[in-house]
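New to this. Explain these tokens.
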Amino acid sequence: MALDPENTLHIELKDGTVVVELLPDVAPNHVNRIKELAREGFYDGIVFHRVI
């Protein structure tokens, strides 16, 4: 199954790329906000210590 490019988030790390499949049918508001922030560059240069 191919990922939907409109709902796929690529996170570039020093050791490689993490690909996250967004699920708008499960969490539409969350997906819309993540996409909005990513397009605005909010996450550029942000250090993530852990993801829960």
